[in-house]
Design goal:
By secondary structure, this protein is mainly α. It has a single domain, classed as ABC transporter involved in vitamin B12 uptake, BtuC, CATH 1.10.3470. A two-stranded antiparallel ribbon has the order 1-2. A hairpin with a 4-residue loop joins strand 1 and strand 2. Helix 1 packs across helix 12 and helix 13 runs antiparallel to helix 14. The protein is globular, with a radius of gyration of 21 Å. The N and C termini lie far apart (55 Å).
Length: 345
C-alpha cells in the first residue's frame, strides 16, 4: 500500500464514518431518553434512500401508502384509549393529523411523481413521506411499553426490525436502487482529490451534528430531552411529558436515518435490507460511547468507518467480521469498569 491508496481509503473511511456517526448519535439519543435500543434505525435509512430513488424514477414509493396505514392504527389506538378513559378531547385532531394529512400527502405524491422532477424537490417529498413515521412508530409500538424493562424493549425492537424489513421488501422489491449525486465534480487539495459528493456528505453530517448540539444546548425542547435522559421520574415531577419526549426523540432519530439514507444513495446501491448492516455499524459506534456519550459515539463511528475502509483493502472478505469484532474488547472494557444498577421503576 502506498500513500495514494492510503489517502483514498482514508477518504472512504471518513465519508462512511460520518454517516455512522449520525446513526450512532441517533441511537444514543433514543436509548438515553426512552431506554430503547432502536435496532430498526437502519430500516429508516433504507426507507429514505429507496423512497428518494423511486421518486427520482417517477414512481410512487411504498412509503406513501405505509404512512396512512400507520396513521389509521394510531387513530384506532386513540379511540380505544378514549373509550377506556372517557377522554374524547383531541380525537378529531388525531384523525386530521394521522389520517387526513397522510391521505392528502399520498394524493399529492401520486400527482407529483414524475421522472423529470427536481432532485431537491424529491428530497423534500422524501422527508415528508418518511419522517412522520417516527412518532407513529413510537405511539404504536413503544409508548404502550414505556415502563417495560430494557430487555423487553430490545425484543420488541428486534420484532419491529423484521416487520419493517418485510414491508420494505413488499414496497420496494428485491432489486437495488441508486440516485444521482447531489453535486458533481472534483476538488483538488494538492496532496489528494476529493469528489464533491464526498465533501457534501461530510459537510452535511458535520452541519447536522452541530445543529443537534445547538438544539440540545440552546432550545427548551432540547433541554427537556436532556432532563428526561438524566432522570425520567424527575422530568415528570417538573412537568416534562415523557410521552412528548419519546415522540420528539423518535422524530429526530427517524429524520437522521432518512437523511443518512439519502446521503448514501448516490454512492452505493441500496437494497431493502441494506440499512440493517449500516445501522449495526452505527450501533458499534454507539456502544463505544457506552450509549450515553454523543462525542465518544461520533468518534467511535468515525473509527468504525476508517477501520472498515482499510479492512476492505487488506481482507475484503472479512471486513464485516473485523468491524463487528471491535465491539468485543469495548464491551469487556466497559464491563470491568461498570457496576450493576437496578432499572429505574
Amino acid at each position: 500500500m502506498d500513500s495514494t491508496i492510503a489517502l483514498i481509503l482514508l477518504q472512504d473511511g471518513i465519508v462512511n464514518g460520518a454517516i455512522y456517526a449520525l446513526l450512532g448519535m441517533a441511537l444514543v439519543l433514543v436509548f438515553a431518553v426512552t431506554r430503547v435500543i432502536f435496532i430498526p434505525q437502519g430500516e429508516f435509512v433504507a426507507f429514505g434512500a429507496l423512497t428518494l430513488a423511486m421518486l427520482v424514477n417517477g414512481r410512487v414509493p411504498g412509503t406513501a401508502y405505509l404512512m396512512p396505514m400507520l396513521g389509521a392504527i394510531v387513530l384506532l389506538l386513540e379511540i380505544g384509549r378514549a373509550i377506556r378513559t372517557g377522554a374524547w378531547a383531541g380525537l378529531l385532531r388525531t384523525a386530521i393529523t394521522y389520517v387526513a394529512l397522510p391521505l392528502a400527502v399520498l394524493w399529492a405524491t401520486m400527482q407529483f411523481a414524475a421522472p423529470d422532477r427536481n432532485l431537491w424537490l424529491n428530497i423534500i417529498v422524501t422527508l415528508i413521506l418518511v419522517v412522520p413515521m417516527g412518532p407513529m412508530v413510537y405511539r404504536i409500538v413503544y409508548q404502550p411499553l414505556a415502563e417495560a424493562t430494557v430487555l423487553v424493549l430490545l425484543i420488541v425492537s428486534v420484532a419491529l426490525h423484521f416487520a419493517l424489513m418485510g414491508l420494505a421488501l413488499v414496497f420496494f422489491g428485491a432489486e437495488g436502487w441508486r440516485t444521482p449525486p447531489f453535486v458533481s465534480g472534483q476538488v483538488d487539495f494538492g496532496f489528494m482529490t476529493w469528489s464533491s459528493q464526498s465533501l457534501f456528505v461530510v459537510g452535511t453530517c458535520a452541519a447536522l451534528i452541530i445543529a443537534l448540539w445547538l438544539f440540545f444546548g440552546k432550545t427548551l425542547y432540547g433541554r427537556a430531552l436532556r432532563a428526561t435522559a438524566v432522570n425520567r421520574r424527575g422530568a415528570r415531577l417538573v412537568g416534562i411529558s415523557t410521552t412528548m419526549s419519546g415522540t420528539l426523540t423518535f422524530t429526530l432519530a427517524v429524520a437522521i436515518g432518512v437523511v443518512s439514507g439519502m446521503l448514501i444513495a448516490p454512492v452505493t446501491t441500496v437494497y431493502y435490507d441494506t440499512g440493517f448492516l449500516i445501522g449495526l455499524k452505527g450501533f458499534v459506534g454507539a456502544i463505544i460511547g457506552g450509549l450515553v456519550s454523543y462525542p465518544v459515539a461520533a468518534a467511535g463511528a468515525l473509527l468504525v468507518g476508517i477501520l472498515e475502509a482499510f479492512s476492505s483493502f487488506w481482507a475484503s472478505a472479512y471486513k464485516e467480521v473485523i468491524v463487528f469484532t471491535l465491539i468485543i474488547p469495548v464491551l469487556l472494557w466497559r464491563s470491568f469498569g461498570s457496576h450493576h444498577v437496578d432499572d429505574e421503576e
